[in-house]
Amino acid sequence: MLCIIIPLIMKSSHVKASVSCYFRYKRQCPLISFERPIKSYISNPDIFVVNKKRMLIEIEVKVSMSDFKRDCLKRIWAYRKKMPDLYPMPYQFYYAVPDTLREKAITVIEGWKQEGELCGKTGLVVVTPCNDIKFLGYNDVWVAKTAPSNKNAKRLGLKEITQMVINQSATLCSCAKKVAKVDINPPVKPRKPKNPRRLRKIK
Q: What average pLDDT does range 130-139 have in this prediction?
């Protein structure tokens, strides 16, 4: 008997949802915000996280190795390396990838580190593929490489926290609209074919 296992291709939305749950519930970080930069930061990662000490953690989601390798070419890394006072590094920076990319991603990060690139000073969060939406959550997430802590990072002030809450509220409203659209226009279930024998009797 031949058994063929087809690997699940994870979308960025799946990784994003699981990693957000991990940092909110497993790590007990009080604030999560999506793709809306704080005014004092030029970086625009997929996920912003604030821990209990008000330190900022940035997370970039990648689901392909080609996209992962290109991330080092972003201007933000050059700005942060040349002008750290104007463009500071967060307390921690993580990449989040499906488990299928784990080994290759770690190799790339280590390569960046050896080349002296700033993006080599990052960590890696891994999400185990799951084919059931019910199981998306922090139990499928684990840290494959701990990100080094930036000792020069400063705590976020009230202004930055307020901006993140505003951004988070906008994301929440957007999600609520999408849920409402699904409730108003639910997916149409295919109808069962009518019994031809019964139709003949009626005629």
A: 60
